[in-house]
Amino acid sequence: MAKIPHVLVAEDEAALAELLKYNLEREGYRVSSARDGEEALLLAAESAPDLVILDWMLPKAAGIEVCRQLRARKETRNTPIVMLTARSEENDRVRGLDMGADDYITKPFSMSELLARLRAVMRRIRPGLAEDKLLCGDIVVDRAAHRVQRSGREIHLGPTEFRILDHLMQHPGRVFSREQLLDAVWGSDIYVETRTVDVHIGRLRKALMIDDSDDPIRTVRSAGYALNA
Ligand code: CA
Prior knowledge:
By secondary structure, the protein is of the alpha/beta class. The protein has helices spanning 14-26, 37-47, 63-72, 90-98, 111-125, 127-130, 159-170, 178-186, 194-208, and strands at residues 6-10, 30-34, 51-55, 81-86, 103-107, 133-136, 139-142, 147-150, 153-155, 217-220, 224-227.
């Protein structure tokens, strides 16, 4: 199973937020919702979304401020941001793009337009999400065929190990806490003990270490795990 892209929606209009969530989930995205700018920053830091849909007019921290802060942080520097602006805010679009937004959509918009724009942004900025193959060092993940190879040799993984590896391969070098991995691999709605992550990481490691090859997964004490870049 390929990784489900995670979209953070920061929109304070409840009806629109709900409509976005419904349509994005139907399209196959996993969705987190923030109702104000502060919550958006918090959720973005916690959950490392693959894409952020950011309303311009948000309580607590305006969209442009959220955008600026997301760009200033190492973890979200490259996260695609699509801004939602009202028609009367023409100048704001330019400022939004200056601030580092990747695209903007003017309200009111059709869902099909929004979804098409999101797909385009995803393809452009995170080709890993649209690509069938991920490469890191001597490891290759073929998502379409659901196969993994290391140094040309076939690696057999269970479905959970496959999804953990897929997630780590998308962000080589980045450290993920157990909670973040739980969220990304199991989803936030399911209760799983954090030590379950350790068990699956252990299995993944064992499977990947063939012929005395080095361990590609780094354990960061009290922080989590990372794939060596
Ligand atoms: Ca708003």
